[in-house]
Amino acid sequence: MNERSALLALLAIAVAATGTPAGAQVPIGAATLQPPAAPAPASSASAPPSAAPPAPAASTPDANRIQFGTGFVIDQGYILTAWHVLQDRGQWQVGPNAAGRWVNATLVKVDRANDLALLKAPLEAPALALAPSNEVPIGLEISVIGFPQPRFQGMTRKITQGYVNGVQRASQQELDTGMLQISAEVSMGNSGGPVFAPDGAVVGMVQRKLDVQRIAQQTNDWMVNVSYAQRSSTLIRFLQDSPARATVRPLQLATVLRPYQLFEKVSLSVVSVSARGPAPTTGPGAGPGAGPVAGTPAQGVGALPSVPTN
Fold first, then answer.
1. How many folded domains does the chain comprise?
2. Is there a contact between 301 and 229 (Cβ–Cβ < 8 Å)?
3. Domain-located, residue 246
4. How far apart are CA 289 and CA 308, in angstroms?
5. Domain for residue 77, yes or no?
6. What CATH number has the domain bearing residue 222?
7. Which one, of 308, 272, 288, lies nearest residue 90 by Cα?
8. Within a domain: 205
């Protein structure tokens, strides 16, 4: 089978699995699925949990398109994710829960500058602990768990590994700011997902990856696995004046879980986040999206071109 035939076969599989028309494009920085037409669901206040993200509320392409990312539980019923996963959408769901279903979520708080959002949902899962990022050494082994490219890989959790390669910050005097550069492989759909230290503590949140195509055009050098995570200390500050009560503990460098042990310990607290429908006109998510957009650097990344990983 030649390359063109293989690509057509892959598209055919995607159509059968998702209902997306062959040749439909996924915008850079957004893992999206285009569901088939269906009746509009009830309001989020009364809608029961569903086995999948809800049906479209309108017939326009933008309203029909579902954005997917990743989130993680930091307190009972509270999920932390990246704001750009939710922006310009007004209906949000998280899942799967223990029964394999998705539940409606409400937006509690947003930090558009640091690309953070806090959701509340009736989801029972253990809360993950955060460790201050100023305790994270360069070269630390890390793991990322999330839902990359659900269009092709399905709605199951995936784990990848890498290292903390360095720190990108706007000022060398602000030592606990900026973003961690990590080498774990991430894709669209990973945005908002946790970065784990070997002891199981969260030390960051996946948000962006290097725009390797733009770099290659300028340098003829194809850089791989260069991604950026918001530091956990920024997450901790974001949660301080929120209703969520996060667990913060020191990083335990002497405790090293093997990848399968880490996955078994924490994976149920990592959830898929879906967003659809028109943006709200009131509340913390109201107004046009003001978070990072495709092709622009995130705060603390500097001049390097990067794209969101949702």
1. 1
2. no
3. yes
4. 14
5. no
6. 2.40.10.10
7. 288
8. yes
293 located within any domain: no
- The residue segments making up the domain with residue 244 are 129-267+299-308
pTM: 0.74
Tens digit of pLDDT per residue, the chain (310 long)? 444 444 334 333 333 333 333 333 232 234 554 433 334 444 444 345 555 554 434 434 455 688 999 999 999 999 999 999 999 898 999 998 888 889 999 999 999 999 999 999 999 999 999 999 999 999 999 999 999 998 889 889 999 999 999 987 655 545 556 799 999 999 999 999 999 999 999 999 999 988 778 877 888 887 788 899 999 999 999 999 999 999 999 999 999 999 999 999 999 999 999 999 887 777 777 765 444 333 333 333 444 556 566 6
Take residue 11 and report the two structure tokens written for it.
Answer: 């598209």
Strands 306-308 and 141-146: unpaired
